[in-house]
Amino acid sequence: MDPVRVGILGLGTVGGGTVSLLRRNAEPLKRRLGRALEVTRVAVKDPSKPRPVDLEGIEVGTDAESICTDPNIDIVIELVGGVDNAEPLVRKALEHGKPVVTANKALLAERGNELFRFAGEQGVDLAFEAAVAGGIPIIKALREGLAGNRIESVHAIANGTANYMLSRMRTEGMEFAGALQEAQDLGYAELDPTFDVDGIDAAHKLALVAAVAFGAPINYEALHIEGIRSITREDILYADELGYRIKLLAITKNGPGGIELRVHPTLVPQDTMLASVEGVFNAVQVVGDAVGPTLYYGPGAGADPTASAVVGDLVDVARTLGAPPEYRVPYLGFRADGMQEPRWAPVEEVETEYYLRMQAQDQPGVLAQVTRILSEEGISIEAIRQKEPRPGDTDVPVVLVTHTTKERAMRKAVAAIDGLDVINGPSQLIRLEEVDAV
Amino acid sequence: MDPVRVGILGLGTVGGGTVSLLRRNAEPLKRRLGRALEVTRVAVKDPSKPRPVDLEGIEVGTDAESICTDPNIDIVIELVGGVDNAEPLVRKALEHGKPVVTANKALLAERGNELFRFAGEQGVDLAFEAAVAGGIPIIKALREGLAGNRIESVHAIANGTANYMLSRMRTEGMEFAGALQEAQDLGYAELDPTFDVDGIDAAHKLALVAAVAFGAPINYEALHIEGIRSITREDILYADELGYRIKLLAITKNGPGGIELRVHPTLVPQDTMLASVEGVFNAVQVVGDAVGPTLYYGPGAGADPTASAVVGDLVDVARTLGAPPEYRVPYLGFRADGMQEPRWAPVEEVETEYYLRMQAQDQPGVLAQVTRILSEEGISIEAIRQKEPRPGDTDVPVVLVTHTTKERAMRKAVAAIDGLDVINGPSQLIRLEEVDAV
Ligand SMILES: NC(=O)c1ccc[n+]([C@@H]2O[C@H](COP(=O)([O-])OP(=O)(O)OC[C@H]3O[C@@H](n4cnc5c(N)ncnc54)[C@H](OP(=O)(O)O)[C@@H]3O)[C@@H](O)[C@H]2O)c1
Ligand SMILES: NC(=O)c1ccc[n+]([C@@H]2O[C@H](COP(=O)([O-])OP(=O)(O)OC[C@H]3O[C@@H](n4cnc5c(N)ncnc54)[C@H](OP(=O)(O)O)[C@@H]3O)[C@@H](O)[C@H]2O)c1
């Protein structure tokens, strides 16, 4: 049979990795598909850039749009990144009846609903495994493998850079700034590290994961996002003493207030699998009503792992090229007419445990005042520790961990505590999740 | 649209779980599929048995074959178990153009090649996610998610009962017999525990995993299988002191001698994810050339988790009911004409590290004799420890760990060591795998 002709937009980290992988594994891929996957055209911004990829036999140009409209291209892979520049390209390809494979989480988090709707109208595929957790086939697991379940929760370490930094802060005793510098020196963090450290990249991924987990429209707007800038060495140390690690988690959960969507630093028990995920790795813990807790672990980014996900999608898409759409897995696992807008839980209605670090004046009665406020809000305390004052300091750190309580009550209590004369606010509040027994 | 009519053979642990799950999650399943999944008939052996499942509206009978030939059944789920009784039923269903979903690893390990060939001739699906690692969607990950990779190795904790027993031996200091008794009391191990503790169940699963990982025919015959009966408390303790845990691993690997297929107790470094898998859980570590190391973790058995896998398959199969076969994922990920018989590595050609425990007479020069034999076989030693004699014993345990060496050389060395006057053989030899840095 004729080869499947593939056009790739962008030849950076992921695009370059994809071209190399398709070349290297052409033989086993053909054994899977019965047809060759042939990259015939790629588009870049600067064609004069030297590229460490074998481009023999591939037409390299700068006109990405012309690939999307080329009748000799069967499938388009979008790897230019960005939202405003990628969207018209994806749309153009779909409009011309070409399925699209993309790794672009920002695009789908912000414009996914319209793009999936349009792809549905055109009857073509739009695949995005590479957009979430790099090489880990987590979209496939949620969308297909766990299709029998009602998903109860997903807890993900979805940004390798942030996880690397938190690992280094713990193992090397670094502060945030030093860990960031190191991550940048190693090429992990972008020069503008906002997406990684402020939780935005993890939030983009979570928006997609929640849609697939719950059969709901993508709702990036509903997300509560906190990054790791405020996390100190001290917090990591105290968490450790209490038996926890601090991770940047992306969490979606069918909670008492509705579907929760939140990205924030989180204490997780040291003896869980999630806690043991170190460095640039990603991990996704999924709890389903039938399967119970499962976990998926692997490299969350990089040329080869991300190309692995792109090519996995490409094989699926190529196999059903031209098939009636009903034979294909729906984009988000649920059919368009089966998607349901759930109640999205406001963050105030989240129920979880909390770690609270306060700076208290070193005098009697402080703990009594703090615990009185908490008890007035119905918050019960699991552990409380008064630390030694830091050298030269007159006030002492007080650290406590609560039992499960509503965020609204916790915020009210912290505001009251920070208003005490004996507390030098603002106090540090970090959520704590038991993440089941995994 | 009309419901998909499902017939289930067997209403035991998994069959009962599947009926319950299909009922409980009928609504979200319909949102995925656009059609209801309706169990219309089930077959059991003893219809008078009380069943803790709601069977309203389901025709319960004892004639399994008549379900396989019933023109009003669209999909057959085989959950009777066993090889000789299940095979004709599966064949009958396929013959009548009905796709089959099964959890039967014994059947597919032993008769899979012929059954997949027959299913191919009939142009219908034969799905088996539930046969491997319970609720973990590992077949889907290997067959589809990681399709872009050449798989390098798979290391799996694939039998929850054996893993539970090894966990208990370590944490409670039990011997094999006590751990087995406990597992039986808890209903984990069968009354005839052979399949679990002798590695047969793990071997059935490995035979399937290897086929999917390497695009090779299923070759249960080529497997090297050792169970956990010979593992003592002492081994677990010494392994612990050396920084390792003992796990029953199912391993397939593209090694220097060809594709390795082996199930055996294995020392794995304590700080790896595989080592931290305790109790009845399963985990599968997959290394691909592009993705690198990934790991999949979850419950390996039980009514609900296994039903999760059965229903996941059912959704896939129902979606492509009546579709031309080329639109469906090939049974083992590779097309029938793309399967290749590899060189299967004889176990003598496996290269790995080893743990060796000997009983040595407590006299000078013993270590010199042992190390001379190892060095004659070109085996280098990573660590060696001479233990205190056990109370009342005159000989002392000597434990050593080698660097990577060929099994053939190691076996020769152990035979020579056991022939020494100063050694009370047979010595205990357990393989040790570094399982990458995961
Ligand atoms: N990097 C990762 O590990 C990773 C992991 C998961 C997902 N992703 C996602 O994958 C996508 C690509 O990421 P990346 O890291 O590969 O980005 P990158 O290295 O910056 O590469 C972007 C590529 O797109 C080209 N390009 C940009 N605008 C273009 C235009 N208008 N027309 C034609 N070509 C254009 C660039 O050309 P020049 O080379 O000429 O500049 C470059 O080759 C992003 O959506 C990202 O979020 C990345
Ligand atoms: N249990 C697990 O956790 C698990 C996990 C993964 C895979 N599996 C696999 O799933 C399959 C089923 O296991 P299971 O644990 O559910 O077995 P099970 O509890 O022993 O159930 C077997 C069922 O099959 C019925 N049956 C046996 N022979 C029959 C025949 N000739 N005609 C009609 N019905 C017949 C039995 O009827 P009665 O009830 O009347 O006796 C029983 O309902 C096996 O292949 C097993 O390896 C099991």
From TrEMBL, chains A, B:
Active site per database record: K205 (proton donor)
Annotated ACT domain residues: 355-431
Residues annotated as binding NADPH: K105
GO biological process, one term: threonine biosynthetic process
Keyword Hydrolase appears in the UniProt entry: no
Catalytic activity: L-homoserine + NAD(+) = L-aspartate 4-semialdehyde + NADH + H(+)
GO molecular function annotation: homoserine dehydrogenase activity; NADP binding
UniProt protein name: Homoserine dehydrogenase
